[in-house]
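Hey, resending since the last one bounced:
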Amino acid sequence: MSWLDESTKKLYKDMRKCTEAVAALSKCESKLGQDLVSTCQGEDMLRNEAEAVGATTAKLEGFSQELNTNSQKTVIEPMKRFTNIFPQANSAIRKREQSLQEYSRQQLKVEKLQEKERTGPNIVKLEQGKKALSAAKDDFEVQNSTLMEEMPQFYDGRIDYFQPCFEALLKSQVAYHSNVYKVLCELASDLGADADPPPDHQYNADLQKQLSDMKALSIVLED
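The structure tokens again:
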């Protein structure tokens, strides 16, 4: 039981961290879009491209918010509700253990009384002990029988509980990444970018050439 409780709590915490990371990424993307628009004021061509990037980051922010909302509904909230079951289940297990201890204690007590001399007071104590033993036995058997019947149902039920949660999360992630891919492709088309980017070595070489050309300008030459 403890491993399931710990695993569920870990899943809950990890999903919270995941949504926080998505929100942080979305915030950075939105800030990047805003900064690009601010940086390119006065340059019509660059401003238009920056505004296109800004509009795209706004769409991405909406997708991120939707993903986090779905993650909250499909995993975080269900996991939190599921963890609320464990205190009651653990309490039932503890009661069963306490009942077993009482049953064992009464049984030992009766065994000791049976070894004593059969005097009037000892016989009375023995009969009382047997009644207490019978009551402890009945109590233990009821609690044990309940746990033995319901615990397998609990473990099996967790599969039916988790499966639709994870399926819904997966579908929302597929929708998120599909939407992100779509708007980024549209942005690339609007900017006239090549659908197939150049290899890294070519990209780095082109970037270095542009940087070298700018460094060659007189306004950036070192004294």
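The two ends are 73 Å apart (CA to CA).

Sorry for the duplicate.
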